[in-house]
Amino acid sequence: MFCWLSRLYLGFSTPTGRIPHLIRSSLSRTLVLTSQRRIPEFSSFVARTNMCGELRSSHIGQEVTLCGWIQYRRQNIFLVLRDFHGLVQVVIPQEESAASVRKILCEAPVESVVQVSGTVISRPPGQENPKMPTGEIEIKVKTAELLNSCKKLPFEIKDFVKKTEALRLQYRYLDLRSFQMQYNLRLRSQMVMKMREYLCNLHGFVDIETPTLFKRTPGGAKEFVIPSREPGKFYCLPQSPQQFKQLLMVGGLDRYFQVARCYRDEGSRPDRQPEFTQIDIEMSFVDQTGIRSLIEGLLQYSWPTDKDPVVVPFPSLTFAEALASYGTDKPDTRFGMKIIDISDLFRNTEVGFLQDALSKPQGAVKAIRVSEGTKYLKRKDIDSIRKFAADHFNQEVLPVFPEASRNWNSPVAQSILEEQRSGLIRLMEIREDDVVLLTAGEHKKACSALGKLRLECADLLEARGLMLRDPALFSFLWVVDFPLFLPKEENPGELESAHHPFTAPHPSDLQLLYTEPEKVRSQHYDLVLNGSEIGGGSIRIHDAELQRYVLATLLKEDVNLLSHLLQALDFGAPPHGGIALGLDRLICLVTGAPSIRDVIAFPKSFRGHDLMSNAPDSLPPEELKPYHIQVSWPADSEAEKSSLNQPSHPES
Ligand code: ASP
């Protein structure tokens, strides 16, 4: 951790060549985001002369003033001082004449804030610490000042000390002192800066803030509602600046960009936040290729240089191909184990459930090959995989071992004819220790089940020591040609937008819109990274009539809610399109953080609470009055009602 942070800042120094000798070859590819960057002046305007972590033997003899937190103290002789940049050893003076300095430095509790002034000296021979970037030097202190003392902490500020996430979130301001959080937030800031530079300075985008008090947008995610002082009138927090960015195109802004805060009241999901940040983009007179090239260039430009460089153009798959080969619209393409259609091998099978599946429309037999599965997977693993498929997808999954002598009593294995076995070996390129997981059923359902099993198998194989997904690999993928509409989950007879209602149909499917709308493909594209969707966008409908038809006739939405947008499209709206990148998720993947909460300074808990301030919180009835709102308490919430005005407890 420490190393990462120091690399980040060593990186700043690299281009000027000021301290090139400090950069060992393994460190030379730094997090610095461009070789042209100037070194930031970290100590301007403040009491210190240097940062703790920057001092090296080249500073020996210099008088310095440092400000930081006491990380630890050893035998009242040494004190390690920490700032955002790193750690440095301070020698506590032992002479009688320095009694007051010694008192301050020996008595201040750990995590107290001190300012010390003194000389950088080299450590006595044999006492250097090669594990510490500042390990060749120490500070001979002359003066010290206790700037603020620290009370007993709820947890130690050391990255290796384990603490629950609830505790970290409750004391987020302390958690932020960790090197890991410092690294994540600083890397985020640097990437965003480079994105701004690329978009605004290199490509003429205009950074425009759009309102967060807005009204409901039909046909999208659930929105947060904000009361107003007008009886019965509410604002909504925007789920994205979608309407505004389109209206900016009508307004002739031509190229818009915003680091936009978005809000979705979607309940708790582990990788989501009720408020999150998008790099939001819109352009006039652009097509899909233009947007894709822009984003590839943007990521390449802003990519940290200590990671493997981004290779462009990114490959692409159609939605149908992604589903058929990976069982999902966000495939993790870092490894194979693709889904193969083996229906043709089993056309005249004796096996009942295969026969049954193949006799139905869209019925198919599908399989994945788990390479070296017999070596790495135990029988109980296969049993748990089968149970998972049965519980989550209602799908029967059978293990087949075409080349291995054992078959773990796979009932289907005995009924597979020799020609089917050899066909399977050929089609799926089976080698000796491979296991085939086979399922049958409706195409989409069978693929979805195998897609999930593919990921489960990857987890299992990796837990058993077979590395499938290189942690240093960033595998970008465009997924294109989505359907414009999907059947509504709660009412499959009705349609909902696969992306959002402003997405333009694929030009070659335009006529189908009036006859078989469920078959229309769209001009929607998603960007996927290592199996996570990190962005999505579309070319928009810029024709008011078409937009009205989609909203009113196909989606059965209330067009009055969007009359301003429909009107705007009628006043010479240019053709336009855009995209939004999920910044939190992107940074999470780049830093390898376990959760998006680790790349957000003050995130909400998975239940949407701020555990530090305890939001959302109750309000007394008199404060609700101006908004003409009364809480109707659910029957079982007596306790909650009586806790009004009393602090409630954070989640544990
Ligand atoms: N507004 C869309 C979203 O938030 C992105 C876009 O279509 O540009 O997903």
Give the secondary structure arrangement, pairings included.
Layout: H1 2-13, E1 63-74, E2 78-83, E3 86-91, H2 99-107, E4 113-122, E5 137-148, H3 165-170, H4 172-175, H5 179-203, E6 206-207, E7 225-227, E8 234-236, H6 242-250, E9 255-263, E10 275-284, H7 288-302, E11 316-318, H8 319-326, E12 340-341, H9 352-358, E13 363-370, H10 373-376, H11 379-393, E14 397-400, H12 411-415, H13 418-427, E15 435-442, H14 443-463, E16 476-480, E17 485-487, E18 495-497, E19 524-529, E20 532-539, H15 544-554, H16 563-570, E21 576-582, H17 583-591, H18 621-624, H19 638-642
Helix pairs in contact: 1-5, 5-7, 8-14, 11-14, 15-16
Bound molecules: aspartic acid (ASP).
Aspartic acid binds next to strand 20 and strand 21.
Silhouette? globular
Low-confidence stretches: 1-6, 9-36, 645-650
Strand order of the largest sheet: 6-9-10-21-20-19-16-11
User: Helicity level, as a percent range?
Assistant: 25-40%
What ligands are attached or bound here? aspartic acid
**Based on DSSP secondary structure assignment, what is the total number of beta strands?**
21
Largest sheet: 8 strands, mixed
Describe the structure.
This protein is an alpha+beta fold and 652 residues long. A hairpin with a 2-residue loop joins strand 2 and strand 3. The strands form five sheets. Strands 6-9-10-21-20-19-16-11 form an eight-stranded mixed beta sheet, sandwiched between helices. A five-stranded mixed β-barrel has the order 1-2-3-5-4. The chain has a four-stranded antiparallel beta sheet with strand order 12-13-15-14, sandwiched between helices. The chain has 19 helices and 21 strands. The structure holds aspartic acid (ASP). The site of aspartic acid has 8 residues, from strand 20 and strand 21. Aspartic acid binds next to strand 20 and strand 21.
